[in-house]
Amino acid sequence: MNKKSLALVLNFIFFGGIFLLIKNTIGTYMPMSYVPLIAFSGILTSVISPKFMVHDQSLFLKLPLKKTPIRLY
């Protein structure tokens, strides 16, 4: 698999998993209507999810509170 495709797939998997976790957690403890729940979960997930990126044919992982990315391979 191409490294750019791998980074895209990993971004989707991590975003989706963290989004579902946050949505279910918030929906369980704070009853609110569906649209604000989805919007708040999406914003919170986009801030705290790890980002995968490709630079010079190397795959990097950018963690939310860390300044420098980690080289994976």
Description:
- The protein is an alpha+beta fold and 73 residues long.
- Helix content is 58%, strand content 16%.
- A hairpin with a 2-residue loop joins strand 1 (51-55) and strand 2 (58-62).
How much strand content do the residues show?
15-25%
- Helix fraction, binned, reads 55-70%
Beta-strand segment tally? 3
Number of helices: 2
Quaternary organisation: single chain
The averaged pLDDT comes out at 93
Radius of gyration: 15 Å
Summarize the structure.
This protein has 73 residues and is of the alpha+beta class.
Features:
elongated; 16% strand; 2 helices; 73 residues; 3 strands; alpha+beta
Topology overview:
Layout: H1 3-29, H2 34-48, E1 51-55, E2 58-62, E3 70-71
Antiparallel strand pairs: 1-2, 2-3
Helix pairs in contact: 1-2
